[in-house]
């Protein structure tokens, strides 16, 4: 005996060769079956013997330039008159002989003795030429479960692992079953659906059924990502699914597939054992195999017709004949059809059912159950009782409203509570109810006077009454409760009973307490804010009056206008200054502090006074802003501000200026307004060490220079550059005296920010 494996290799080669020969013989047998079938058709048509038919078939094939198998398929297609192969256009699959493959597959399926053989025949004759790598035939159970009835191309372990798919597991086959339509998936991994052969990305799942009932699903797998397929392939796949449907029906009838089925007599006995009305429905199939309606095979003993008809008036009729509105009102027919097709049960707690009574529709609300049992469908319903439904709604309303009802008969000492009242008192349902007369034993002592008046009105004066009190429970919890009661009197005015309700208003009480505290705190806060605003306004008015005395010195006129914010809470930190310095130069400045209220006003005072003191040193505007930045950064409470500072020298008529994040001045010369250059300069207080660049402008007689804050020009809906351009246009034109110019600027400003506004005008006479 050799040990080098040569004998094993030879044996494996022999087995492979025998398998190939077996497959080839099966294919040849399928082809011969089609040829023999075509010969039989020729014998019938030509009324000749088998030998003459064979000669005629060979002669016709030779003349047509085709094979006897191709000609046999054409003869069978023409004679069959069905659309199994005719639906696939012959030109849609050139060179692939789709018609021959489909007829060969059909022949193999008809000769197969089980579903596994059907799967292998489909895979060998029809699917491998399409590039498919595997095929699975799923049988659909009555509970919409899936059983692997046949497969080809999968590993044995993979097929065993996917032998059964329980109801509710989402797979491509399950989606095809529930959607009742083909599901094409280009990449299984991207779909998120698990399925047999997970390493085969491309696949299609097609429902297979007859007579409106889906008996299974044909799932075909490709080894690569599946590109969009032509219409001919779609048609071929649908045709193969029809073959599988016929096979699954046949296999189920012979017990080869483990379907959960129920005989009609057994289902009728099951329906009669139910306590609710039920119908046993069977499908009505048209000549073309489509589902048209359901026939009422059985009506159970509990049946109560919506229209008042007896059982005999419904039994044996079609569903749409007995209940024509089932196709419209509530989609009952659609639900029954879906359950019959897929096997997935349908249940609804509230569904509208309708029937015609004297040609008028009568609708009721019912809970409905629809289940499939073999080929039959069981329809069960329960009309909701109006009184029970209202009682259920009342119970929910009492629970949500924390309301407990009671009724007591004082003469007999009988007290009835509902479950909500036991929960309110913190008592178990087995405890004795507390009579209304003992309510004071469970109340806060401070609430006893009002409760005594409540009991006097109800028990003695026989008048409805209500009271609010604090309920002390045995578990130490205190609840705020409102009790309402009314007496029930007989015809002589005697007290028969007392009915009423307790309502737990604890949440409302504590909400009111919290709301009252919040309102008090809000009032205090509002008062403090108003006081701060008034203080800020008074401080601002003292430091920044609306007008400033006009300065006339050294041929220069300086005028100022200030307009505070329209609302006290918006009082801000705009400031201005114009003063003659000890060195006979003139300081002009404007600025704007971020923030409003008392912080903005005090910050404005600090910077304005600091700048005035620093200017007495005779330093230039750039140096003044550098020092002022140190003040804002180190010596104040985190002030951030913009500022513009100018120093005018009467001897040279030169105005030197610098800006710290502020808007540039506007020079009016020769009846035309023009913005001065936008010098670089960071806001005050942003950084500790900042330098500021200076600019110079030589004033000429008649020139006017405007320094202003953004409250004069800024609009929320317009870019700032455009706002400043509007200001230049507004000041252009015939010259005005300085006072009139400033007044008109404030009067005609279209700013909409409700901010403070400062304008400083400098005019060389």
From TrEMBL:
Start and end residues of each ANTAR domain: 15-76
Keywords, comma-separated and alphabetical: Hydrolase
Pfam family, one: ANTAR
Annotated PAC domain residues: 465-517
Superkingdom of source: Bacteria
Family matches, as SMART domains: ANTAR (SM01012), PP2C_SIG (SM00331)
Molecular functions (GO terms): phosphatase activity; RNA binding
Keyword Cytoplasm: no
InterPro entries linked to this entry: ANTAR, Bact_Sigma-Reg, PAS-assoc_C, PAS-like_dom_sf, PAS_fold_3, PPM-type-like_dom_sf, PPM-type_phosphatase-like_dom, WH-like_DNA-bd_sf
Protein name as annotated: Serine phosphatase RsbU, regulator of sigma subunit
